[in-house]
Amino acid sequence: MKSAVIVFPASNCDRDAQTALKEMTGKAPAMVWHQESELPDVDLVVLPGGFAYGDYLRCGAMAAQSQIMKAIKAHAEKGGAVLGICNGFQVLTESGLLPGALMRNAGLKFVCKPVTLSVEETQSSFTRKYEKGQSVTFPVAHGEGNYYADEETLDRLEGEGRVMFRYRDNPNGSARDIAGVLNQKRNVLGLMPHPERVVDPVTGGSDGRALFQSLIEALS
Amino acid sequence: MTITPEMIREHGLSEDEYARIKNLLGRDANLVELGVFSVMWSEHCSYKSTRAHLKKLPTIGPQVIQGPGENAGVIDIGDGDAAIFKMESHNHPSFIEPYQGAATGVGGIMRDVFTMGARPIAMMNALRFGEPDHPKTRHLVSGVVSGIGGYGNCMGVPTVGGEVNFHRSYNGNILVNAMCVGLARTDKIFLSAAKGAGNPVVYVGSKTGRDGIHGATMASAEFNEDSEEKRPTVQVGDPFTEKLLLEACLELMATDAIIAIQDMGAAGLTSSSAEMADKGGSGIELDLDRVPQREENMTAYEMLLSESQERMLAVLKPGREAEAEKIFRKWELDFAVIGKTTDTHRFIARHRGQVVADIPVTALSNEAPVYERPFRKRTPVAGEPAYDRKRSVAQSLVKLMGAPDMASRRWVWEQYDHSVMNDTVEPPGSDAAVVRVHGTKKALAITTDVTPRYCQADPFEGGKQAVAEAWRNLTASGATPLAVTDNLNYGNPQKPEIMWQIVAGIEGIGEACRALAFPVIGGNCSLYNETNGEGILPTPAIGGVGLIKDVSKRATMGFKREGDVIILIGETRGHLGQSVYLREIEGKEDGGAPAVDLAAEKKHGDFVRALIEKGRVDTVHDVSDGGLLVAIAEMALKDGIGVTIGQASLADAIPFFFGEDQARYLIATPFAEAEKIVEEARAAYIPVAELGKTGGDVLIINDNERVSLRELREGHEGWFPRYMAREEIPLTN
């Protein structure tokens, strides 16, 4: 599996994504600057966590307008896999690649802690190596991860099996405890928790490994 | 414009100091020059009250690459890797505007570290607030914590620990000390000496505005009721720009274009340029018209004294300007060549065709006044205060675990991203935070410590204890302690009794650092921490860094197995003077500080560390605030395993369980290993005792008292969130 990590100004989990991808795939991902207009030939594009453009205006809003997003949209259009983590998820909702929006946490504070998630669906390139209903622990680290969509959209997401991860103990007020959602074509995943921070037991766990193993199996 | 006595006073200078300035210039100063002198000769920049004493601190050792005097200290951690770190205060701004004050404190200390070529990998902060029921405390806690998080989280550097304490002496003067640790290669360290003439001086980062003018002077004055009117002198931080500045600087540093580089911190453009010229033995000429400006019609005075954030000054090799500019443009940052180095040894600034300042460089550095301020020695408080022998040990423990100074700080550190960068091995809430050296099996252990109430009772022993506790916390995690940075927070040094706290504190720190081979490689002094004449408790915070060679061989405090034997290393004399017990349970801040036997510290610590390094024990905790039983309760709460323990010595239970004797560690390990350890300790003449066994979900004490982990946890975890949610007005004694 060939991968790329997009670097926006003030992305700050780009190195974490890079390290995790290298560890899991054995190959270093391409690091792609946001002003590029083309993607290298890759199977997976990762939009990493961070504070792209300082989260000014709205989280992800300015990054969603950057040059590289056109290429990412085209990649997704052709069925290429896109993974948005944390700030990357916010960029995906702002750019319309995923439905809904991420609002300020209900507690109005930044929250960083390990959270338990249930894997809701395994019918995807991102989750096929998990068991349905499996509990996994990923850390969250965000101030604006409160997922919102109108009732009709939420019903549709649930009906189409596109809610991929749900919080067991909702840390941010997200609608229906949603932690991660898939697009209709099932090739774009956005989630607030950080799977790339749990690929090594020394630094907090290994529950994120299966997400990358799923991608490797599906895309290689 | 003639300089009047009033203008001199407004600039925080004395008449004598102005006479000295005239003498150095050979003429009257103009207003711009007066401003330049006022910041460079401020306590904050010149260390004029402490410099003579700081010289006595040990600063060398085989591990030290760079000691005090640079932006941060540097130590060798093997394999060509260096750890670069420093701690610095942002006390005064944080009291006036807690969010921005704390945020820019974080930004400033990060710049000190990355200006030396290091990528910051961990942040710590030592915070001290007024008593919980003071009307301002909640607001200040909330603002400072969000400010630290707001800046550090955006930078993507994990905030991995620190301290939070409450005491009425900080009611009008909180302490916000931030520490940053970075990593670099030993052959890629950047210094601030602007050697050579004719080299371009470049300005990078944010534009200069009118914010923070005279911040350094403000930080060198006492507070009074009007202090909140000083809000316009507090700078505003922009972590987004700092993140870009970090990446751009590291990108430039990967080339060999830089001769010297320094961040613009306190006293901004003035101090960075004057210090670089001074260290390089050169002169510097600045053309202020070329300084990127955020506001219109800025005067030379404003530009030289502005403390706008996220700015750096670098001296490049001639001809490398275009290459450097390209990097900063890529990161969408300002870049301007604003001057050059000279061989005149003068600091010269031009504005609109006029020379607005022309000062010999040494007048701003070596010629700054140094004061041997008089001090009045006070006999340290001594004696063992009385206590009620009949109180319940278990119920006292419940109360202590939920006391403001002892309760869990989870509410605080969950607002900090402590796992970004994917190398945090031990998150906040332990003896020391542990952060892996990226891509290796090595790790750095980091801690900040000081017990101000000990320093108040006995500044010398308190200074020793701060160092010893930092050393112990690193040791308990399995690290070899390497070096410290100190952040000396005191009151007004012009008062002889405060000056004595400073002198004795530095002596105590020096003695402990020498005995433990734990040199001081940098630091910061924050004086004049007073409001309306009331000083803070003396608070010399110590930031310690140690190395774990193999991260698979380290220890953590939580009990890991049922049936482990609990071993106490070190002597228990039952010292209750200045203990948390005495304050929280008896309502007395009384008695002497515990004595620190540095030889015992070293011996006990080396013994414990060897056990961890050999992989023989994995559960260790140092005994500090609150004493033995509090330490045991913390070990039990961590992973929810209870314990049955008994008193091993002394007639009374209370001093045994709550005394704060130093040089002690708790170990929990399976029976067979425990037997061997006890035998080895005895053979080495190290005091050792078996206290009991792990298991169950309660604490059973001396067979006759018990308390459930659930009850302990409720108080311990509950206090902070309840306090911040205003559900309860806590009691303080």
Describe the secondary-structure layout.
The complex is a heterodimer of chains A (220) and B (733).
Chain A (H helix, E strand, L loop, with lengths): L2 E5 L6 H12 L4 E4 L10 E4 L20 H10 L3 E5 L1 H8 L6 E3 L7 E9 L15 E8 L3 E3 L2 H9 L3 E5 L10 E5 L5 E4 L17 H11 L1
Chain B lengths: L4 H6 L4 H11 L5 H10 L2 H4 L4 H4 L9 E3 L6 E4 L4 E9 L1 H6 L1 H17 L4 E11 L7 H19 L3 E8 L8 E11 L14 E6 L9 H4 L20 H15 L4 E6 L4 H13 L2 E5 L12 H6 L5 E6 L4 H10 L3 E9 L3 E6 L2 E7 H4 L28 H9 L8 H4 L10 E3 L6 E4 L6 E7 L2 H6 L1 H18 L3 E10 L6 H20 L4 E7 L3 E2 L2 E2 L3 E10 L16 E5 L10 H6 L12 H16 L6 E3 L4 H13 L3 E3 L7 H6 L6 E5 L1 H13 L4 E7 L3 E4 L3 E4 H16 L9
Parallel strand pairs in B: 4-5, 9-12, 17-18, 24-27
Antiparallel strand pairs in B: 1-2, 2-3, 3-6, 4-6, 7-10, 7-11, 8-10, 9-11, 12-13, 14-15, 15-16, 16-21, 17-21, 19-20, 22-25, 22-26, 23-25, 24-26, 27-28
Helix pairs in contact in B: 7-8, 7-10, 8-10, 10-13, 15-25, 18-19, 18-21
First-residue to last-residue Cα separation of chain B: 55 Å
Rg of chain B, rounded, reads 26 Å
Strands ordered across the widest β-sheet of chain A: 2-1-3-4-11-10-9-6-7
- The value of Rg of chain A in angstroms is 15 Å
Number of helices of chain B: 25
Shape of chain B: globular
Fraction of helical residues of chain A: 10-25%
Assembly context of the chains: heterodimer
Structural class computed from helices and strand pairing of chain B = alpha+beta
| Main sheet specs of chain A | 9 strands, mixed
Label the structural class of chain A: alpha/beta
Number of helices of chain A: 5
Strand content of chain B: 15-25%
Q: Total number of β-strand segments of chain B?
A: 28
